[in-house]
Amino acid sequence: MLNPTRPINVALVGVGNCASSLVQGIAHYSNGGANEQIGLSHWDLGGYRPKDLRVVAAWDIDRRKVGRDVAQAIFEKPNCTAVFCDHVGETGAVVRMGKVLDGYSDHMAGHDDGRTFLLADGEREPTQEDVVEVLRETGTDVLVNYLPVGSQQATEFYAECALEAKVAFVNCIPVFIGSDEGWAKRFEEAGVPVIGDDIKAQVGATIVHRVLTDLFHKRGVKLDRTYQLNTGGNTDFLNMLNRERLKSKKISKTEAVQSVTEHRLDPENIHVGPSDYVAWQNDNKVCFLRMEGQLFGGVPMNLELRLSVEDSPNSAGVAIDMIRCAKAAKDRGLSGAIHPASTAFCKHPMRQVPDDEAFKDLEAFIRGE
Ligand SMILES: O=P(O)(O)OC[C@H]1O[C@@H](O)[C@H](O)[C@@H](O)[C@@H]1O
Asked: Name one GO molecular function term (predicted).
């Protein structure tokens, strides 16, 4: 049975563009009524409306953000996403210095040109005990991981904190926690829900590619070759110029497409990637998709598609549901990997199913079935 306890106290690891869109969205939808639901797939989810989310803690490593209220930090550089709500009231949560580890590399650092990270050096980094104490003191229900792609150690650090503090963990990035048997088991044993990994945006490159791949399959068209090229100008794309950081991202994004049908493509016939950093695009992400196949009689066909989205609101539209599902899972005493939510919302869940099935399973979960 549903037993919502409001508000949902949310802590953020990383106050970048995706966090900005989420926090703006909470303010935007809190100011409006039920008739202003554009952009949401659920107004009420598990007894929670967007206004029931409250940001109570945040960590970042950029000197322009540390020490500021989250409501101001989200508008600091190098954030560059669309401002769709400029009247975000003070949250009372001041951004704390985060644990650096591999959440930052020289590659993303630079000059004060507003595009790169500026490490808040001189600030004391927190220990696990420090983070756990904050999570406990603030009564955090859900910890959301928004670290840069490639932050393996830093993600593991915060996942450990969530486990110790018994706080639900929502992993928006391609580091395998919710989809890793070992980690998921630890969350289960600790009685803590985990949703992950790697957020699948509202109408993003992955879901469009998956749905079209499924369409080819269901209509009897053999997919021979495909690519998904993505360009953007935010720090995510800047960070991903460092190919070393891309390993799990490539696996996550490629597998999201490969897993749709039983007929896997040879690796040489599928290319899915972040492709280039184009500074002037800022948070605009453009995806170029090509699919080549054979239809009736083996006659060739091809499809070309160009998708242009503001990346971070596209992510926040899903994050706002992931957080509410994590809290609903907690309310129901569920723990470990929350499969219906992970499958519907993530590129790399532990279990992949076609998106229409995932949608039905998610709705059943939300109804409490
Ligand atoms: O468009 P897709 O393939 O769903 O990917 C979306 C998300 O992918 C994540 O890996 C990025 O860090 C997010 O910023 C982005 O929103």
From this structure: inositol-3-phosphate synthase activity
